[in-house]
Amino acid sequence: MIVCEATDIEFSKLRISRAYIKLLCIPEGTEKIVSLARIGNYEVRMLECSQSDTDVTPLFSIELFDHDAQLPVAVCSCCGIDEGAAG
After folding, report:
1. Model-level pTM greater than 0.70?
2. Is residue 81 over pLDDT 70?
3. Distance in angstroms (rounded) separating the CA atoms of residues 59 and 86
4. Where does the pLDDT of residue 44 fall: very low under 50, low under 70, confident under 90, or very high at 90 and above?
5. Contact 20, 81 (CB under 8 A)
């Protein structure tokens, strides 16, 4: 059981890392969104965070998006890969 949980976390970190690299490769001036998974009418996706003047600026946000309502259901700002994989 512990081995499976550790493997799942490492897989999540790898998936988040790959998505973040894709996000960074999207040209400026384009909406920066990378899809992580789609389940029915819902999509889990990574978005670029807007830069702010604070000391702690999140690297990215992960949101659950409802395509029927065309609205985000939940959003989590992440300051690192570990935080994104844990969310």
Report:
1. yes
2. yes
3. 15
4. very high
5. yes
